[in-house]
Amino acid sequence: MVARHDQTTDPVLLDGLLQARRGTAFFARKLNELTDAELDGDSLLPGWTRRHVVAHVGYNARAVSRLVEWAATGVETPMYPSVEVRNYEIDFGATLSPIALRNLFDHSAVHLNVEWRDLPADSWHHKVKTVQGRTVPAEETVWMRTREVWVHAVDLDNGATFKDIPAPVLERLLKDITDAWHARGTDKDLVVQVDGTALSFGDTTAASPTIVSGPLAAIAQWATGRGTDGTRAQHDGGSVTPVPAAPAWI
């Protein structure tokens, strides 16, 4: 039997698919290291157990698959009927037996991968709509999923850190977050700088900004609201203690 491959030949898209698949494998590894009993433990997300994180990532794959199907068929298939349905789905998934919860993640990830693999090259540009109401090309689904699997692998609180996430993923994540701040006007007088690079985000035209800096992984962790370890802040040349909380991202 001849092996089936991605129909797209776009090198940028293929690289994105590789990062998404590596993130999925990384999440799977951190999940499989947990015993069934440990699934009941707290995640790094307030109010969510590890079960909630796994359920969310599993159902997210199904939701993203619906967008890929929309791009392939032209038949509108939203990610979720509503935000309320999405939240109910996660809460329900968290009550599944350990084997069912693990199967949810495994099967949904395989399904999404097949949908991506079989999407015709010209269909990647077809427009779909995210749960937030943004109209985007289907190729955006790859980044949507990449972000989910890498960040939530850390949220399982099983030894993964932002240092495990590839630098290109962290850089794009930072751009996403700071763009969201800018769109809401919540980055006023705030500049984010990554040590050892020219990367600078936020209100870079501010006359007297608060500058939050640190290594790339630490800055990404801070920007996602997951702690200030490894970061530092300055205002008018003096240190700021403690480092201010990042504006809300989502």
Mind explaining what this structure looks like?
The protein is an alpha+beta fold. The chain folds into 2 domains: 11-160, dinb family like domain (Four Helix Bundle (Hemerythrin (Met), subunit A)), CATH 1.20.120; 167-240, Nonspecific Lipid-transfer Protein, Chain A (2-Layer Sandwich). The protein contains 7 helices and 7 strands, in the order ααααββααβββαββ. The chain has helices at 11-32, 50-73, 83-93, 98-118, 140-155, 167-184, 216-223, and strands spanning 127-129, 135-137, 190-194, 200-202, 210-214, 232-235, 238-240. It has a 5-stranded mixed sheet with strand order 4-3-5-6-7. It has a two-stranded antiparallel ribbon with strand order 1-2. A hairpin with a 2-residue loop joins strand 6 (232-235) and strand 7 (238-240). Helix 2 packs parallel to helix 4 and helix 2 packs antiparallel against helix 5 (140-155). The longest helix has 24 residues, at 50-73. The chain starts with 10 loop residues before the first helix and ends in a 10-residue tail after the last strand. The mean pLDDT is 93.
Concise summary:
GO terms for molecular function: isomerase activity; metal ion binding. By secondary structure, this protein is of the alpha+beta class. Helices cover 48% and strands 10% of the residues.
What are the main properties of this structure?
Four Helix Bundle (Hemerythrin (Met), subunit A); two-stranded antiparallel sheet; 250 residues; globular; 2 domains; Nonspecific Lipid-transfer Protein, Chain A; 7 helices; single chain; five-stranded mixed β-sheet; alpha+beta
